[in-house]
Design goal:
single chain, 0% strand
Length: 170
């Protein structure tokens, strides 16, 4: 062997630190990507298992909520019937004829039912998300009408002098 030929040829020499880093960096990146790819099903599986468990728990809670809501509604209606019966009985004991006492109870119930129906009709347009529809609709279509202002909300809707304007598009 000729020692001068081995030392003169740089390609025959051992690779330098820069050469090994250049060769190992892509291999390290590829191995990292491959390891991440191998771990991906486990990561997704864990999250899916958690989602399934939480959805099951939420479904069980929803069933309990509906059952409890029905029980509360039945008990509330029973209490309301007892209250109205007590009012009618009290009116009869005060000397009012029983048919007139029942008429008073029916009229009071009708007034409360009418108020509930009126309030429900006033709230119904809010289910259509008027501000969101107005914000998302193209300007050429035209403005979407706002729901009517309630008597209690009229003071809040009327701007006070010197107050800053309210930004509708938040």
């Amino acid at each position: 062997m000729n020692p001068s030929t081995d030392s003169e040829s740089p390609s025959a020499a051992a690779p330098t630190a820069d050469d090994t880093q250049a060769v190992e960096a892509p291999r390290g990146l590829l191995e990292s990507v491959r390891a991440l790819w191998d771990e991906l099903p486990g990561l997704l599986s864990d999250r899916l298992d958690l989602l399934v468990l939480e959805l099951k728990r939420a479904g069980d809670a929803l069933v309990q909520i509906v059952v409890l809501l029905m029980a509360v509604a039945v008990l509330g209606v029973t209490a309301l019937l007892a209250l109205w019966a007590g009012i009618a009985l009290g009116l009869v004991e005060q000397g009012l004829h029983w048919s007139l006492a029942l008429l008073v109870v029916v009229v009071l119930n009708a007034v409360v039912a009418f108020w509930g129906w009126w309030r429900l009709r006033r709230l119904l347009p809010l289910l259509f998300l008027p501000a969101t529809c107005r914000h998302l609709s193209p300007r050429a279509v035209g403005p979407i009408s706002d729901p009517p202002v309630h008597a209690g909300d009229a003071a809040a809707a009327t701007p006070t002098p010197g107050a800053a304007p309210v930004n509708e598009h938040r």
